[in-house]
Amino acid sequence: MQGLPRNFLPSLLKLQLKPHRFPSPMSSKKIKRAGGGKKPELDIRWLHLGQPYLSLAGVPVSALSESYAAFSKKESDELERTFQALSKDDQLATRLKNPSKEQIAKLEKENQLAIEQQKKKKLILEVEKEADEMLEEEEERLEQVEEDAEREMTVEELELAEGEMGVPIAKDGLFEVDVKEMKLYPVFWLHKGPNIPVRRGRWFYDEKTPCPDELADDLEKGWEEAQSWKPTYPEELTSRLSKNDDSVFVPLPTAKPLGFGSHVLYQDDTTAEVVHDKESITSKLSQTFWAALRASGTYSGGNLVYRGWDAVQRSEGDAIELPNDQLEEGVEIPSHKENGEPGEPAASEVKELFLVVHGIGQQLASTHESFNSVYDSNTLRIEAQKQAECEAVKQMMGGDQVQFLPIQWRGSLKFKTASTTEEDETHSLSNRFALEDITLKKTIPYVRELINNVLLDIPFYLSKHRESMIEAVATEANRTYRLWTRRHPDFEKNGGRVHIIGHSLGSALVANILSNQPTLLPPLSSLPKSVLYKTRDRFIFSTHSLFLVGSPLGLFLHIEQAQIVPRRGRERTTEAPVGLALDRAGRFGCFSCDRIYNIFEPADPVAYMLNATVDGSLGRKIEPISIPSATQSTLDSVFGSFSELAKSLPTLPDLSSLPAPPWSTSKDEGVSEKKTPRFPEQKVLRQTESEKAQTLSLAEQRFLALNPHGSVDFFLPAPSTSVSEYLDMISAHGLYWSDPSFAAFLLTEVFSKPKPEEDAANVSSTSKA
Prior knowledge:
- The chain is of the alpha/beta class.
- The protein contains 29 helices and 19 strands.
- The strands form three sheets. A seven-stranded parallel sheet has the order 14-13-15-16-17-19-18. It has a six-stranded antiparallel sheet with strand order 2-1-6-5-4-3, with helices on one face. Strands 8-7-12-11-10-9 form a six-stranded antiparallel sheet.
- A hairpin with a 4-residue loop joins strand 10 and strand 11.
- Helix 13 (373-388) crosses helix 29 (740-751) and helix 19 packs across helix 20.
- The chain is elongated, with a radius of gyration of 34 Å.
- The N and C termini lie far apart (101 Å).
- 37% of the residues are buried.
């Protein structure tokens, strides 16, 4: 084999590329082509490197995926429609937003060469000068960004910023794709890390590797010229190969300088082989090579590429070669079953939306990603999905869906700085200093960081900065809800409800907001834009259930000498008699919500109980209610456990039928020994229920107005294994998110519909003896 390059045979032996079998040009047997010789459409599929993010894991994502994953067909088609709507210039600009790995390597190499040349020419001083100028420009830019951040955005600016929507991706549209920027991003929380690139796949090496745009352009243009989809193409290719005609190799003018390949050989309408050195093949290869090429129809030294997503999927079975007797006229190559389409939105809409408000410690997330509250919400979502698979819980949900969204208020918190007065200037009282200026330098760094970034949130809350913290929570929650309803416009119309989970200090901040909240709010569509975008100290939506988790609220109520009072005019207090509930926004402890639950781990050092804050006398007697265990071994009986719990707890009849409370004896009556009925979800009550309700004291009625169970305190079952009470105490405050019992409790409380005909036990059944 004289004339072969010296390295050809060794490289040929090393290459273990998957061979693609197409009918030998010398054979008269053919494969039936789709469309009978018509030019086939290009099956474009969009792909991404964000699978680790789309999985919504409960732990930080360390890096992008190493290989591309395909969007679903529905998502890909929408992405392509959006792309086609762009101008030609914008379409071309997308390539610069997302260079291929090969292009990045080439640019880095060019930059390195440029740096070396500058050094050789002794231009270091000029480079340093230029760097200084660039540094000054960057500092000016950052100052401008800071000024813009301090400047309050107008309603029009906020509406415009939130109105820009990408193409929704994955379940409930938690992610979107910005086609112009060619990136995937989460909608409702801040994305940290590198941009998540997306690619528009036209030609593919395999399902996980689309060809670079430059190569795809050349391949598509060459495919148009070769017209390999025509029925006569196999005979034409046979004839040219028999004559050793090197024109079968189509040049790749754009791709060659970038190192993607120099020429391409089209095998059929969907498959081609890219070669990197056509000259060494055509001018130096012996007749033996041409004979082998004519016989087998493949050149093992090339890279197979496939036109369109459907073709690359079928190629997964190309290694299994069909016997010649199966390649008869009119017989199609068997198509391979497509992979599942990940990320398709759920068929049913979300009816129950949970907003998760984090507590202390999120300042630490700026330097330690594992502390980011987004992963707590992800963990809770995963646990809720597991519990929703339980047949009994699934029946309760009735096909409706839930979603959990984090409210990252700490990242947007800006403390108000004191203004300098003329007197301050006169007497030199304008001294300002930062926390770093007063922090001891010789303490253990991590411990000091923990104190500064975690524990200081508590004294901030007890200071004049509380107002800023409340505004940060309300502003971020309102922004999230606006984004949600914009992407789910039928949420409110279809009866969607909002529930809030307030963890740690977040529960106290939410309590402040709901205390100031109007009793009822109209739909967003009827709110003035000034209210919709500029409300800072309250929510722009109504809250159905408030779940306080690991909450210190009891301590703050004690400090303020406040108490929890049902809000009159809500679901359970629509026409409550005077004195039982108050319609008083602005009173701390009078929350504008339908139900309140205070949930804690027994070992949690931050949590406090709340029963006594409703009524001290009765609250001391009522034991916190144990949440049934929802471990895997008892998963199927969770529903039964909650049913038994509900039967053993008192509930309140419709408050419109209750008499005025007996003020003179309400606090001294103790616990009634008579049975109380289960709280019905209907307004018309049986006479017996109304009669029974008359025996309840004011305190009992208030407890029952706060939730259907007659107690606001609930505790989670202790872990089956415990190494140390001290270790349990340290970890208890952060264990709620991964607790299956907590997730099951949320679902059953939100979806349960109490039956009026069920009897309920007396309040005394949950009281201390």
